[in-house]
Amino acid sequence: MFASSLGVSRKYSRPSALDLCISMPCVTPETDNATVLQLFGKHNDLVSLPVVENDRPFGLINRHIFLSQMAKPYHRELYDKKSCIAFMDKTPLVIDAATSIEALAEQAVASGDKALADGFIITQEGRYLGLGFGLDLIRGVSDMHARQHQQIMQSIEYASVIQHAMLGTSRQALANTLADYCLVWEPRDSVGGDCYHFVAHERGWLAVVVDCTGHGVPGAFMTLIFSSVLERALALHGPENPAVLLQEINRRIKHTLGQIAGQEKISKSNDGCDAVLIAVDTVASKLTWASARTPIFRFSAATGQAEQLESDRMGAGYTDTPCDYVWSNHEIPLIPGDLILVCTDGLIDQVGGIRQIAYGKRRLQELLQRCHAMSMQELATELLQEHRAYQDDQARRDDLTFFGFRI
Amino acid sequence: MSNVKIDNLHIAGTACTPEVDFRFDIHRLSLKGESYPENAAAFYSRIISETREYLAGLTPDERVEVHVALVYFNSSSTKMLFGFFEELNQAALCGMRVELYWYHDREDDTIEEFGQELHIDFPEIGFHDIALD
Hints:
A: 407 residues, alpha+beta, CBS-domain, B: 133 residues, Transcription Regulator spoIIAA, 3 helices, 6 strands
């Protein structure tokens, strides 16, 4: 009578219905209701009882429905000797053992609450194998998602090690060269599309702050492209002419990604960067910069005012940026006490405050005005604190980088 | 002329994508919310192509209203928005009247400034800066 049948079953390489399969006693259509009643009485934890005919699933008897039917007046007398198919569910969810957990979850949800409450029958090559239950299915789905999430996160964590390593040389050179500076680099998602570069030379130094399109992994890919393109540009033109470097960077990004106007069909991407290149001539006390859509601020020791300096509105590398676009070099003398700060749009555009609007350039300029006497490290701490308080419980929208120095 | 009927386009907003309410039947296109999807090109390509198709079916004397109330958009979205406005600018060059209503919080100089840049970049589009309290 007990046609229990968990035969030899092979495991599948990915999580499948087989992993949820529990070998269960089953009955045949010939089994009478009195026997089923006895079985339910003996096994208190038996929620569902599969009905199997010639190894093939036939139906599923739900404990509560069955017991409440049999409790009705005269039902025992009427049904005790009759086939147990009288009160069974004739269309339970039947799943092949090879079905993936994802597909199984989809079918279970589509079948309504029945499959989750009563369980579902698992078969292999059409033969009855056992039952699967809703709770185990939820556990299976949740375990699988946890595994996938962990895999992605570990991959990103390691990518972050690489991105940090790439920036390490610049960070070191910066620390060795400047006395009063700050640099904050905060990718939104472990890795990001912001990056920086710093190189010192005999007559001064060059600092580059870049916001590549995108954030996260695609953003980080772009920073790698930017980094190699910049290295090449520096090898060709040296570190003293920002506009020429930006022009070279633009050309090389466009070529690397095939983003040449008129050839859009070749490349699906339209990625590039906003960047500012700051060249300081320490001998002549002169600052030269070129900016592609990146704001640059100065607190002027001469005027005692914080102000935004000029930048070009053209980004670098994009499909619609002309190959031969020429950015402007801007030049100002530097005097002791002058403070320069550049940042990516993650700082300016962060939504927050009472009105839930962007942090904005005005607030940043006010902070520079207020904190101009602090050391750059203190100023950076102040700026971060103010920015975090402004952001409050809003989500961080983008990667955030800023670099500042004082003469 | 305008015998090609295009269905209105409505996409509900999410935390990182704007609400899109393009009522082509009454020539009123609205974008509202924030825009920083993981794949901006994927999100905007349909919006831009349907707009292009809609504009192509218009008579040259038609008037189109575009209402944009975006609080935040990232740089990838900015690129796509430029593509969208480029379509509208082209239509305006062909004689259609395109009116852009650019909404921002009165204290939000970032969005206000972006509107002014759009006005410079797409001179054929009528520009209306609307500061909200």
